[in-house]
Amino acid sequence: MKFVARFVHILLWLKVAASPVLLGAFIGGMICFALNEMVFPVIAICIGLGAVLGIIWAEKTRRTVGLSKFHGRLIGHPEIDGSKSK
Fold first, then answer.
1. Residue 12 has what DSSP assignment?
2. Global pTM?
3. What is the spatial distance between Cα 74 and Cα 86, in angstroms, rounded to a whole number?
4. Element (H, E) at 84
5. Which tens digits make up the pLDDT trace of 37-50?
6. 86 HSE (CA, 13 A, CB side)
7. If you average pLDDT over residues 24-36, what whole number do you get?
8. Distance separating alpha carbons of residues 46 and 33, to the nearest angstrom
9. Angstrom distance (rounded) from CA 15 to CA 2
10. How far is CA 78 from CA 28, 54, 84, in A?
11. Are 17 and 54 in contact (CB under 8 A)?
12. Main-chain phi, psi angles of 37, to 5 degrees
């Protein structure tokens, strides 16, 4: 059972860390689109910066709030779960 819990914990950490990486890849792609050519160093730098920021953010979240609580807050938000309070 510890293996499953550890695996889920790793997946939650990767989920937090991957979002800035994807954002960096998107920004790098938009820069290349604006330049009208594929510049791989620009994409690599943007992805690298996103990875560094993602690692920092995931570790800060893990140490302060906790990954399960962080994802619970995201999923349990009233605008996401469909409840309409007035």
1. H
2. 0.79
3. 20
4. none
5. 999 999 999 999 99
6. 0
7. 94
8. 14
9. 20
10. 33, 26, 7
11. yes
12. -155, 155
Burial 46-74 (b: 16+ CB within 10 A, else e): bbebbbebbeeebeebbeeeebeebeeee
Q: Which residues, including other chains, have CB under 8 Å from residue 12's CB and lie 6 or more apart? A: 67, 68, 70, 71
Cα 43-50-81 angle, rounded to 5 deg: 120
- Alpha helical stretches, state H, the chain: 2-35, 40-64, 67-75, 78-81
- Can you tell me which residue has the tokens 């990767």? 14
And the tokens for 54?
């993602």
Tokens of 58: 């995931």
Task: Find the length of the chain.
Answer: 86
**What's the one-letter identity of residue 18?**
A
- The answer to whether the beta carbons of residues 42 and 31 sit under 8 Å apart is yes
Residue with the two structure tokens 């160093």: 41
